[in-house]
Amino acid sequence: MSANARSALDRLRQRVELFRKEQTVDGAGGLVQTHVSLGLVWAQVMPAAGRLAESGGARTGQNSLTVRIRYRNDLSPGDRITLGARTFQIVSLGDADGRVAYLNCLCQETRTAG
Prior knowledge:
- It is a single chain.
- Strands 1-2-3-6-5-4 form a six-stranded antiparallel barrel.
- The chain has a single domain (3-113), classed as Beta Barrel (Thrombin, subunit H), CATH 2.40.10.
- It is mainly beta and 114 residues long.
- It has one helix at 3-10; strands at residues 14-25, 31-55, 58-70, 80-83, 86-95, 102-113.
């Protein structure tokens, strides 16, 4: 393994769980959206931007961040990534290095604070 490849792998230090968005029938003729675990993977979580908004008297913080993982092709926008108690909604995905080695997941996290 080359020094560059080893260096990139060394940055994947956080354990995250991947979830795929699925719709299932609810038994009453409707659909229910659920997220099914795809398992735990190593990742590098990098903050991108944040903003604070006020809606209905509550403050809402929205953070954009990039989660880099080993490349895979079973994720789509709308899927989720969790890191501990934090949940990130995947907004877009892209090949991180053009060599199909790493996948950058641009994510949005929304938190409500009093």
